[in-house]
Fold Probable allantoicase.
Amino acid sequence: MSYVDLASRALGGAVVAANDESFCAADHLIDPRAPVFSPQTFDHNGQIYDGWETRRRREPGHDWAIVRLAAPGIVREMVVDTAFFKGNYPPQCSLSAARVQGYRSAAELSDVPWTPLVELAAVKGDTANTFAVNDDATYTHVRLAIHPDGGVARLRVHGEVVPDLELLSLVPSDLAALVNGGRAIGCSDAFFSSPNNMLMPGLARTTGEGWENRRRRDDGHDWALIQLAAPGRLLLAELDTTHFKFNAPGWAELVGHTADGQQATILPKTRLQPDTLHRFRLPSELPAVERVQLNIFPDGGIARLRLIGTPSPAVS
């Protein structure tokens, strides 16, 4: 199963509090880009790092940062990436989580109960330290603690979005969106980038923010299978090839899969244009589907895929 980085700023995560940001701001933790480093690059505080770095502690205690997840979800794995922190990384870390209703201030979060997800664990420098999480509860916030101090380049909180079906039922919504609980569960090829990129919020800024496969040298075609946030009736499909000027697919097709294993053509094989947002009104007689397969012919890149619909009454 492919998991989503629930903490990513690109999805909507945010660092809402940190007890110390003396050297580098905690906002770097959730930057979706890989960390970078330029040796011998200094400011008035010292060497510049692409991460969160606290001062050297001279008293007991530990440092911490709180992240509001982009959407409520189940945490399956945590990655504490200490890339480029070789002599100033924390020797240990821990992670806890909380489920909060509404929109709490940073001060109010100190009063909520926190559940340990990863107990005190050893951390290596300049390493993507990975920790499995065995907890099926839904959380809205996580708190990273580093013991006692130091630098962390990135925090990845891999897991599954738990859809708010009541909210999705109010108006037609994008049932494929990652932030709503949709996700890619398979594809023919992800050589250049993941099909989950198509399901991200907002507009793609480059081809690197979409799904792109390698050039095919056979008679086949590429595809991506999307698990919807909930089974539903689709009303509108958007296939966006923005920025894909010379590597857009020639044609695309959408095939729905119902809960009882039947298939339904949502969008027949249709010509696409490069660097274009395509919108297709879908037939009103379509059945409710729980998965949608995007077939592209023969290959190429898709910036965004939106599948607008409403959850079926049985699940709303």
In short: Residues 165-168 form the longest helix (4 residues). The chain has a mean pLDDT of 95. The helical segments are 165-168.
